């Protein structure tokens, strides 16, 4: 652990999701680890710093806890690290408009370039209602809670995270001009023209909210440059692209690229976890000679359907692979209460049936689809793949492309979308694909399956070494160093 990480400091994390989620089992209250990659990524902060975490109360039991507690209260991680938690309960209708109409799918679809614009989106009064009666009040409530926690810990630096809270930093800044804040955006940032899909007042407010921070972070320089461009184009802000700074309304913001890593020690442990070994043995017993794997959420941005179509085209072009190669898709359900996401699951299931009916034989099913919330199953898949397909339309980073190589035992080959943020780091050792080019993806899958063994080893080893050298701790240290730089400059 570096000196930056071990030097304890007071931090206030503001994120929609908490590191813990409460539920009822057998009449008793139980606490489970919160879901989502951001919660996992920020877990390292809790053990090494004095952290207060402000989040939305998302379950019925979360809301019960919020009602019982006046302000923040002490909780513990599974490893016994203490932190303070502040749960903010929202009106259910307000939160529905915030989460299921504006944050997802509006912002998510915009920031992943998922709209064709010819027919979608088609905004009516419901969008403006979701903004004014959903996104705005939820941001106000979380900002208000953060300010109360700052009254208790006035020296704390504030770390906002992701697309749910673009307005909160400006609200905190207005009340506490002296506070040091950062905001990390974990998803892509579109170039200015695409932001014109949103009404002017909304897109301006989003960019101004972010520019109230001292530091704004992205996973790649590609998204960083797009944000700098958008700040100048949409706000007329003074942008210094060489220095990576934006001046707007008398405040200077530093814009940085900090690619997130994973924790190698966690995957070293998971590799030998009994539950992983059990799932791996079952997979190994039924796997074909060569295995193409994808691990994703059932999210339209992940491009799962085109991946299956590319695999079908591979089988059409290369009959010698029939019976010898199979594709296993280990997918986690995502936002199934939102119709667009539920429709995408139906499309996934339909294309899998089509591929299996077209090419399958009594002793060979080309595609195996498993939709479940089971991360240990995914780790078992990581160990067994010969080819890993990660073909998102756009992705802020894509941790699957990093995690898998820490445990893979077959010198697997990475087929990676050029629009995944991870491509900036791993592209030299991957087979690059255009995520919209199904034919090109089929060719890349064939090239990966037939790659010479020595070249497979070289590429896999390089990815593994890179991921081990640039862990989650490096990402955390970089953000804390950015905050320190703001304080020293002040």
Overall average pLDDT: 94
Q: Supply the CATH superfamily name of the largest domain.
A: Glycogen Phosphorylase B
Oligomer: single chain
Taking Cα atoms only, what radius of gyration do you get, to the nearest Å?
23 Å
- Structural class, from secondary structure content? alpha/beta
Number of helices: 19
Instruction: Work out the helicity level.
Output: 40-55%
Spatial sequence of strands, sheet with the most strands:
5-6-4-1-7-8-9-12-11-10
- Largest beta-sheet details: 10 strands, mixed
Distance between the termini: 27 Å
CATH C-level name of the largest domain: Alpha Beta
DSSP E strands, number:
18
Overall morphology? globular
């Amino acid at each position: 652990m570096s000196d930056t990480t071990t030097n304890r400091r007071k931090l206030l994390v503001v994120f929609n999701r908490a590191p813990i989620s409460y539920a009822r089992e057998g009449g008793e209250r139980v606490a489970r680890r919160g879901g989502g990659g951001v919660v996992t990524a920020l877990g390292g902060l809790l053990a090494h710093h004095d952290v207060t975490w402000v989040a939305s109360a998302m379950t019925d039991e979360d809301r019960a806890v919020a009602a019982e507690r006046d302000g923040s209260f002490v909780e513990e991680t599974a490893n016994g690290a203490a932190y303070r938690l502040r749960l903010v309960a929202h009106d259910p209708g307000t939160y529905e408009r915030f989460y299921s109409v504006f944050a997802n799918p509006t912002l998510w679809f915009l920031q992943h370039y998922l709209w064709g614009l010819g027919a979608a989106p088609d905004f009516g009064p419901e969008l403006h209602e979701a903004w004014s009666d959903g996104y705005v009040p939820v941001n106000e409530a979380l900002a208000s809670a953060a300010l109360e926690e700052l009254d208790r810990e006035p020296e704390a630096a504030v770390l906002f995270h992701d697309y749910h809270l673009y307005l909160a930093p400006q609200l905190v800044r207005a009340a506490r001009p002296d506070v040091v804040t950062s905001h990390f955006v974990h998803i892509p940032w579109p170039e200015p023209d695409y932001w014109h899909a949103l009404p002017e007042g909304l897109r301006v407010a989003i960019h101004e909210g972010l520019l109230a921070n001292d530091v704004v972070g992205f996973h790649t320089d590609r998204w960083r440059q797009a944000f700098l461009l958008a700040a100048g184009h949409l706000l007329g802000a003074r942008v210094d692209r060489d220095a990576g700074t934006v001046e707007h309304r008398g405040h200077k913001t530093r814009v940085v690229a900090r690619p997130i890593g994973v924790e190698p020690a966690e995957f070293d442990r998971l590799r030998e976890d009994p539950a992983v070994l059990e799932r791996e043995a079952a997979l190994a017993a039924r796997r074909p000679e060569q295995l193409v794997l994808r691990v994703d959420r059932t999210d339209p941005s992940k491009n799962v359907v085109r991946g299956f179509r590319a695999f079908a085209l591979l089988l059409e072009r290369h009959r010698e692979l029939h019976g010898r190669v199979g594709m296993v898709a280990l997918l986690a359900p995502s936002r199934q209460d939102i119709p667009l996401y539920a429709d995408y699951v139906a499309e996934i299931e339909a294309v899998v049936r089509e591929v299996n009916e077209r090419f399958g034989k009594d002793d060979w099913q080309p595609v195996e689809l498993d939709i479940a919330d089971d991360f240990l199953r995914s780790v078992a898949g990581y160990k067994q793949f010969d080819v890993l397909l990660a073909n998102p339309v756009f992705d802020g980073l894509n941790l699957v492309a990093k995690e898998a190589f820490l445990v893979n035992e077959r010198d697997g080959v990475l087929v990676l979308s050029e629009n995944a943020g991870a491509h900036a780091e791993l592209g030299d050792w991957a087979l690059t694909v255009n995520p919209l080019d199904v034919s090109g993806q089929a060719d890349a899958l064939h090239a990966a399956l037939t790659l010479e063994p020595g070249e497979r080893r070289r590429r896999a080893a390089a990815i593994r070494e890179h991921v081990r050298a640039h862990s989650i701790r490096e990402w955390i240290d970089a953000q804390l160093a950015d905050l320190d730089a703001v304080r020293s400059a002040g």
